[in-house]
Amino acid sequence: MVTTRTLALLGCLIPFAAFGQGAEVAFGTMQQDSSLPVEVSADQLSVNQSSGTAIYTGNVVIGQGDMRLAAPRVLVVYAEGAGQIDRLEATGGVTLVSGEEAAEADRADYNVADGTVVMIGNVLLTQGENALTSDRMVVNLDDGTAQMDGRVRTVFQPDEEAPQGEGQ
């Protein structure tokens, strides 16, 4: 059965998929909740107090609520004098997961204050059985949308429960 969400997604993507210029897609349950704690695990940590940065390396996993970000290396930049995280720069192959949706890219920059994640290089977004690829994706965590740019390609899997046609 084709869901309303799938139809809305198709309506947004079909005009852009042929041209590969860009597409705005729903990014489901991925929402930023800055009131929740951020948990980081990694094999190594290097802190530079003078620059207000920390570098996590080796099997880095960062979680906040239902969101998970994994990468080989993550640079954390703290807001000056606030003790709060300003932004995260993940490199080396990044995976961002929330619920049943996942995105992969070569790099991801998460600006905590803006509530945006910019994923760059070989971006792959999976939503259930459907997949979208592009060169760049900007996720707005405040409203749950994503803008994909640079040779966007979409693959929709047929719904196995959908009827084959009327009168059959």
Description:
This protein has 168 residues and is mainly β. The chain has one helix and eleven strands. The N terminus is likely disordered.
Unreliable residue stretches: 1-21
The share of residues in helices is under 10%
> From the alpha-carbon coordinates, what is the Rg to the nearest angstrom?
18 Å
Oligomeric assembly:
single chain
Quickly count the helices: 1
List SSEs in N-to-C order: HEEEEEEEEEEE
**How many strands, which pairing sense, and closed or not: the largest β-sheet?**
11 strands, antiparallel
Distance between the termini: 16 Å
Shape: elongated
Number of DSSP strand runs: 11
Query: What fraction of the residues are assigned to beta strands by DSSP?
Result: over 45%
Structural class, from helix and strand content?
A: mainly beta
Q: What's the mean pLDDT score? A: 78
Attribute tags:
8% helix, mainly beta, 168 residues, elongated, 11-stranded antiparallel β-sheet
Brief summary of the model shown:
The chain has one helix at 4-17; strands at 22-26, 39-41, 44-48, 53-64, 67-78, 85-98, 101-111, 116-127, 130-140, 145-149, 153-155. With 168 residues, it is mainly beta. The chain is elongated, with a radius of gyration of 18 Å.
Topology, element by element:
Blueprint: H1 4-17, E1 22-26, E2 39-41, E3 44-48, E4 53-64, E5 67-78, E6 85-98, E7 101-111, E8 116-127, E9 130-140, E10 145-149, E11 153-155
Antiparallel strand pairs: 1-10, 2-4, 3-4, 4-5, 5-6, 6-7, 7-8, 8-9, 9-10, 9-11
